[in-house]
Design a protein that fits this description.
The chain is mainly alpha-helical. It contains 11 helices and no strands. The longest helix has about 35 residues.
Length: about 280
């Protein structure tokens, strides 16, 4: 994996884990997510407009923009539901890890991307680490939390795999900056009917969490914009796998910020994730 792509992905991972932790702390996760992403989109739109080609959005890019807007709307909805019902250090690895497992396999058939042996080993280590993290739920309380959040986290992982493949192809047809700006508009508009039905929660979220919303708005689209640039430089499977260094951060955040316990096994499993990321970083 190219050094510049790796640096973009590692920065994106740290930013991603941070805004996800802010989302977990929210009273209504969907209202928080919609507010932060919509605000970020408003700020990013003029920048995206400046990066548009003179002829406007290429016709070939529109199918990918439409598809990713729908998939991202689903992603933010199910992500909010997952964080509302499960521990951060369990839900986050499931959601992120499923994408690692699915993207390289799907990319082989959809994008004809074939990972090298070292790259494939890295992906397998990341997946093994994710399995280990989730085997750390040993108490009845942990199992209940995991059961409540696992279903939503799995759907989140499926949506991550889907938008990763769509966006890998999409940014080959349109520059990442206008691409993510249009994506943000589409996703926000699609979620308006759902958010309107939660307007009381939305008002409460702004009243009590407006500072965190402002911080998250500077982080969420920024993290994915870095990933979109990395997609232009490296294979989709490698980018998605290297991004999962954020899983290591999520385990630490779960312990330090949310007071979640039983971290020994999860930290050991996180070391497998880190080893996998190193393999992906060295792969060509």
């Amino acid at each position: 994996m190219r050094t510049d792509a790796l640096l973009l992905v590692l920065a994106a991972a740290a930013i991603h884990a941070s805004w996800n932790a802010l989302t977990k702390r929210a009273q209504d996760q969907l209202a928080f997510l919609w507010s932060s992403v919509s605000l970020a989109t408003v700020v990013l739109l003029p920048v995206g407009w400046a990066w548009l080609p003179s002829e406007g959005v290429p016709r070939a890019a529109w199918p990918f923009l439409a598809a990713t807007s729908v998939i991202h709307a689903v992603y933010f909805y199910v992500l909010g539901r997952a964080y509302g019902s499960g521990e951060f250090s369990l839900v986050y690895p499931i959601a992120r890890g499923l994408g690692v497992a699915l993207v390289p396999v799907a990319a082989l058939f959809v994008l004809d991307e074939r990972p090298s042996p070292l790259g494939a080993l890295g992906v397998l280590l990341v997946v093994a680490g994710i399995v280990g993290i989730n085997l750390g739920a040993t108490t009845a309380g942990s199992r209940r939390l995991m059961s409540a959040g696992t279903g939503w986290a799995l759907v989140t992982g499926l949506s991550i795999a889907a938008y990763s493949l769509v966006d890998k192809a999409g940014v080959a047809r349109l520059h990442p900056v206008p691409y993510i700006a249009i994506l943000g508009v589409g996703m926000s508009l699609l979620l308006v009917p759902t958010v309107v039905r939660r307007r009381v929660a939305l008002a409460r979220e702004w009243r009590t969490n407006w500072r965190a919303i402002l911080v998250a708005s500077t982080l969420n689209l920024t993290s994915y914009l870095l990933v979109l640039f990395a997609f232009r430089l490296s294979k989709a499977g490698y980018v998605v796998a290297a991004r999962e260094i954020s899983i290591v951060l999520s385990v630490a955040i779960g312990r330090l910020w949310f007071g979640e316990r039983r971290m020994g096994r999860r930290l050991a499993a996180a070391a497998l994730v880190l080893a996998g990321v190193v393999c992906v970083a060295l792969a060509r």
